[in-house]
Amino acid sequence: MRHGKKINHLGRTSEHRKAMLSNMATSLILHKRVSTTIAKAKALRIYVEPLITRSKDDSTHSRRVVFSYLQSKEAVTELFREISKKVADRPGGYTRILKTGNRLGDNADMCIMELVDYNEAMLSVKEAGKTKTTRRRRPAKKTGTAAGDKHAPGETTEEVVTEPAAEEKPVKKPKKSVKKPVEPEAEAGPEPVKDEMPEEPKE
Known about the structure:
By secondary structure, the protein is of the alpha+beta class.
């Protein structure tokens, strides 16, 4: 088990790994970006960022220490002349890893490693996003200066008349009509004969 082992040996011997990281760091400093695998990029970040921090102190001792790692006079000159000015106000985090997908041959995770302060596209997007919109409150209404003026000139006042709310009457629920059962009609029989009295003669 790899308990406490933080160094990724990258499947190489110590000399091979140091030479590879030195070459990659030189390419990153000269070209400002390099395309590699994510595992190598993470190892390179640990290797190159302390060198960039040391470049902020432009002294003979710092240059000799950095040269012992990079073994390239051009890279040391570029680092101390150009890059150190760009990263002067940045307290670490000088590099960025952007994933680009998998490699076709062995399906390795690929990425682009670049110096943060040299990506002009991302810097322009950040500057555009910094514009803030200010919100201002409306000024308070001024009261009239003249004694007779109730309101300042130019002000319009609206009187709102509120009517008293009508008393709510309880709503009567309609009574339910109960249907009575319909009785069947009696069968019609012969009508009864009335006794007719003879009319009396008129005098």
